[in-house]
Amino acid sequence: MKPLSGVRILDLTRVLAGPFCTAILADLGAEVIKVEPPAGDDYRHVGPFKEGESALFALNNRGKKSIVLDLKSPEARDIALQLAAVSDVVIENFRPGVADRLGIGPKALHAANPALIFASISGFGQSGPLAEMPAYDVVVQAMSGWMDSTGEEGGGPLRTGEAIGDIAAGLYAAVGILAALVGRGRAAPEAQTGVQIDIAMLDCLVSMLPTSHALHHYAGVKVQRTGNRHPLSTPFGAFKSADNAVIIAVLGARQFAQLAKLMGDETIASDPRFASDELRTRHEPELRALIERWTSQFPTEVLVAELLAQGIPAAPILSLAEVLETPHAAMRDLVSPVPHHSLGTSPVAGQPLRFNGVKPVAVQGAPALGGDTRAVLEGLGLTATQISGLFAAGIVKGADLA
């Protein structure tokens, strides 16, 4: 299933948020032409490395073509304008105003292609007092409420283990681009107009805090860090086992009664301190002590089996390596090998969507720096002499032009 087959995307992004978005679109069949500066995307130079190839670049740039343009050159800008004229989507993650200064902002590109979808990813958006503020993931996590709500109970704020700000912005950018493509496709050809999509990492993270919003707006209480337990539901979190910890997620009176029965003390379910979810959360320390008196007697594997048998959601805490070794991960193809120009094959996580049971995956791995420069320029109608002149002048660069 390649539902975006025939869609061309001009990718002016680097590092993570933008490339994460366009990798998803490449999985879905879009032709993604990645424009890189002469030194390449920053992620090409960030480890870990395998045989000289950046793992982060390989994971987030699968399925794309690479063309090297020095966009500070007028000639390179003209090539970018030509590419935008024959593309459906342009996506960039420069600081606000940089694309305009380079002559490749939405106004210039819409003049070349009135129906173009132009998506901009930034830390704080294209407008507002913070628009010009530089942002990496940790900056936006710190300012969004994510770090403040993450951490051990009574402890300090913690950064989420992954670059959730970049990932969230990439996902929302993909949603916005797909929505714009659908909207444009429903219009008559003569009525199709371009659109500019503004994706801010801060906005994305703030929108992804439903529990915090519930506490702040509706309960009128300050968001507190609760470690591995849920702030609203109890028992819902990690509990000590004989060998590690077990996740128990109880929601509602029926599941709580099942848990009490399994623990061998059904009076717990009728204890007035634990008569509702709200009361159980209020008396969480007392209830935790009772539960851990039981869970600490058994290894995690035994606890998970017994809890699941009673219809109570439960799980061990697995590392990535452990989950990828499970038969379920293998059957669901959570990681797929794709051909790579240097490594032979490259394992990629891909995207998790399935269409009629089929998971779309890019047909090739991340490209060599400038590996598609000649082919892309030829597709624009440039002659071999013109291409050679651009290369000699340092305006373009590519592995196939060395």
From TrEMBL:
Transmembrane segments: none annotated. It comes from the Bacteria. Keywords: Plasmid, Transferase. The keyword Acyltransferase does not apply. SUPFAM superfamilies: CoA-transferase family III (CaiB/BaiF). Signal peptide: none annotated. This is CoA transferase. It comes from Gemmobacter fulvus. The lineage of its organism: Bacteria, Pseudomonadati, Pseudomonadota, Alphaproteobacteria, Rhodobacterales.
